[in-house]
Amino acid sequence: MTIADLHDIVLSYPESWNRPPDPHPVPDPELEVHRWLDRLALVTSAEEHLKYGTILRSDLFARHSYPLAQPDRQTTIARLLALWALHDDRIEGRGTAEGEAERIGRAVRGTPDPPDGPGADRYVHAWWELGREFRRAGMGERWLRRFGANLTAWYRSTNDEAAMVRSRGRYPGSDAYLAVRLRTAGQQVWLDLLQYAYGRELSPAEHGREVRTAYRLAETLYVHFNDLYGMEKDANDGLPNLVPLLAREQGVSEIEACREVARRHAGTLGDVCALSHRVCARVPSLAWWFEAFQHLLVGITRAHELSPRYAPVQVTEDGSAVRVRLACRRSQEGEERVRSFAQVEQGVM
Fold first, then answer.
1. What pLDDT does 332 receive?
2. Most-buried pick from 32, 145, 148, 324 (CB within 10 A)?
3. Whole-number pLDDT of residue 117
4. Which region, left, alpha or beta, applies to residue 92 given φ > 0 means left and ψ of -120 to 50 means alpha?
């Protein structure tokens, strides 16, 4: 590969949304995740330790996505993300067992008695431990019920994904793919965790149409940047990805399909900016949540860039080399005009 062969795809965010986390948190979430996975025997081989400790780096996702949270809460979230990824990898392509989604949704509510009986395996017990931590932190019943329901819905969606892959393979068509992928993005869970991370629950009135719209936009953004960072990984795993789907449907190269995905990302980000400005001006009590939401969007994208789980330079199916980069920029015309500076660039190494 020569310098001229490398194509840069840049995902731009407003500079004010960028909040780097504490570089030296105490306790250290990375170390605590290793200890927790060992204690619950969730990883049992050197290969799994490498994959879910060193390569996944759930602590990067927790710290960058919730940068102003206290380290103990970042640690709990890092444990949750490691467990989620570990279990997701085991069920990917085949879905959940009968009743498994419901058992996990109940367990994560952290009721006093640990789960037992048929189906109460080590994963269910680990979700229950996390639920107990949520209760110790003071999370209310309403939040626990919603969180459990959203986690259950995510696990159920993996059955739809598995059915799609079985019936249509890696190229189901972008519309069919997005109908499933937006639900498997998991952003309902990530955004629910904002309230735990910062110890502030939304009232029923606050958790209304505007917040639900933010959840929907986050799902769309996640699919855009996750599929850009995960092109090569998805190809290796035999899973669909938006980039090659669009390339086939539009009759363009995968580089041009990457640019199209990044353009869609910029357009959706503009919708997030407009929503944030509108809501914060009208409902000041939601300003903290939208600020945390913005931090999460930048942080989770940054963690994709930093995590060894995703290759910094990917080779597409048609042989092109792509590097996806995050850039935080100032807008001369105001951040509500994010479309004016959320650009897709082709550059060199």
1. 43
2. 324
3. 67
4. beta
